[in-house]
Amino acid sequence: MAEKILTRNFHLPGSHTLALYRETGGYAGLEKALAMKPAEITEAVKRSNLRGLGGAGFPTGVKWGFLPKGHPGPIYLVINADEGEPGTFKDRYLLEKDPHALLEGMIISAYAIGAHVAFVYIRGEYVQPWRIFSRAVAEAYEAGLLGKNIGSSGFDLDVIVHRGAGAYICGEETGLISSLEGKKGWPKLKPPFPAIRGAFGAPTIVNNVETICHVPHIVRRGAEWFASLGTKTQGGTRLYSVSGHVERPGVYELPVSVTLRELVYEHAGGVPHGKRLKAVVPGGSSAALLTADEIDVTLDVDGLRNAGTMAGSAGVIVMDETVSIPEALMVVARFYAHESCGQCTPCRESTGWIYKMTRRIIEGRGRKEDLDTILDVARRGAGTTICAFFDGAVGPYISYIEKFRHEFEALISK
Amino acid sequence: MNARGAVKVEFTPEQLVEVRRLQGLYPDRRAALLPVLQLVQDVFGHISLEAEEYVAGLFDLSPAHVHEVVTFYTLFFREPKGRHVISVCHNLTCHLLGAQQVLTHLKKRLGVEVGGTTPDGRVTLLSVECLCACEIAPMLQVDDRYEGNLSGEKVDRILDGLA
């Protein structure tokens, strides 16, 4: 059994308290980090091959390295706790079961990048996680772990917890920044990237909850240790959210070199009721679908990219043989149509039209040309928009139709 | 009540202190717009056009800007809602595991369509995108709480517990 790192305390009563976090070695990474030079921490994060675990999979240390050198400040750290990718629920567990792990990671990361204010943007629906995390912040202030002169190091950090108000697009880092600034969550044109000009016009690093939770362990146990847990290009373990037609849905922490077959069958117990597997969404709904005979792939960022899909947020949705893929696509297309922020025409229009076409196919009013029209609209729109939202929608549009075209055609020819 | 029968929207002095505290948290006070709108909704139940104008005044923003923000987010209600809000997740995993049956059951029990509020003002029923609790699908949110692994009986028990 692989070692649990981020989830090691999940089963303990009181895992969300400072007392228990400290008893189990918590904040030891912080102590070590505050004795290091900030640049040494960034270097360690680079060498660890930690990659962003919110969806994009970008190397975390490289992202930090984009900050302008010698900037007089302010520099902001923003934690993306706007978990929203369908099929993903691991950040909810981290916020509820180990909020101090996130706080320790934040303090170390803020120290490394020179931030003295950090924001945590939590999706509005996450009321319980917000309450638990906010209590942890209050505990940390009382214990002198936040505020002025943390641990007599001379380093100051304030943490502001900010709640979203319901919009998937605010999980996109520049949409999140717009929302944090008090606006509708429209993504911003890049460049400039947030590291140069982000929240309130200042250099900003936006990182996912899980990504930052890894940082104390990297500091404490070393970059090489962390790198050795994963593949050549991605270090560490990762939290896989598994749901759908499996015996044991839930969060599984595994090295990123685990295969999709191992995750579904060995860890999540396989498909219930003796049914056969039909397909798996490997990385949240924006990842291209894999068929039952395509699951011998490793679940690291590059492994899934080479398989023509993506690791995304590691939300794994399992579908058994009874699932109608056209119906599943309609559900997914409804989501993208609803959540498109409306800023870019190709996305706003295409998501709406594609949803309507999938719906009429399900309702028996599909036209022969609909499938090729959907594929054409999807391909033409890809890469033409300000953010990656529409590219994310294209993953399911194309893969569901290309891999299960006969199911769609059967509905159309009826 | 004003001439249009709407409740006058104005914060108490204590609530205004909270508004100023929120505005002071951020490098730019306008960043407190979402938390202040959340406060409006907590106090007045929903965010009316009058409330939007009032909030705009607190921030020196145009009412149009506030309206743009209020209408962008799904958790802001522009009409009065029920004492309880039930949001059934209809995204992929919940769909695979019976979200439609849950919705049908709720519509029948409450006698309302999605988006509707029971005549006694007790419950507003919504059908929403992924709430990120797919491990307990099919699931719903009732006010602040997530409830999952839903069956007809469990939905009935949840409804029975709502005042």
Explain the overall architecture.
The complex is a heterodimer of chains A (414) and B (163). Chain A has 414 residues and is an alpha/beta fold. Chain A has 17 helices and 9 strands. In chain A, helix 2 packs across helix 9 and helix 6 crosses helix 9. Chain A is globular. The relative contact order of chain A is 0.12. Chain B is built from 7 helices and 4 strands. A 4-stranded mixed beta sheet of chain B has the order 2-1-3-4, covered by helices on one side. In chain B, helix 2 packs across helix 3 and helix 3 packs across helix 4. Chain B folds into 2 domains: 60 residues, Arc Repressor Mutant, subunit A; 77 residues, Glutaredoxin.
How would a crystallographer describe the biggest sheet of chain A? 5 strands, mixed
Unreliable residue runs of chain B: none
Q: Give the strand tally of chain A.
A: 9
Give the termini separation of chain A.
Answer: 50 Å
CATH superfamily of the largest domain in chain B, by name, is: Glutaredoxin
What is the strand tally of chain B?
A: 4
User: What is the correct CATH architecture of the largest domain in chain B?
Assistant: 3-Layer(aba) Sandwich
- Which structural class matches the secondary elements of chain A? alpha/beta
Mean pLDDT of chain A: 97
Span from first to last CA of chain B? 26 Å
Helix content of chain B: 40-55%
Strand portion of chain B: 5-15%
Largest interface: A-B, 58 and 42 residues
Helix content of chain A: 40-55%
Question: Layout of SSEs?
Answer:
The complex is a heterodimer of chains A (414) and B (163).
Chain A: H1 18-23, H2 28-34, H3 38-47, H4 60-65, E1 76-81, H5 90-97, H6 99-113, E2 117-122, H7 127-142, E3 158-163, H8 173-180, E4 204-208, H9 209-221, H10 223-228, E5 237-244, E6 250-255, H11 260-267, E7 277-281, E8 290-291, H12 301-306, E9 315-320, H13 325-339, H14 345-362, H15 370-381, H16 389-403, H17 405-412
Helix pairs in contact in A: 2-6, 2-9, 3-6, 5-6, 5-7, 6-9, 13-14, 13-16, 14-15, 14-16, 15-16, 16-17
Chain B: H1 13-25, H2 33-44, H3 49-59, H4 63-72, E1 84-89, H5 92-96, H6 99-110, E2 123-128, E3 140-142, E4 145-147, H7 152-160
Parallel strand pairs in B: 1-2
Antiparallel strand pairs in B: 1-3, 3-4
Helix pairs in contact in B: 2-3, 3-4
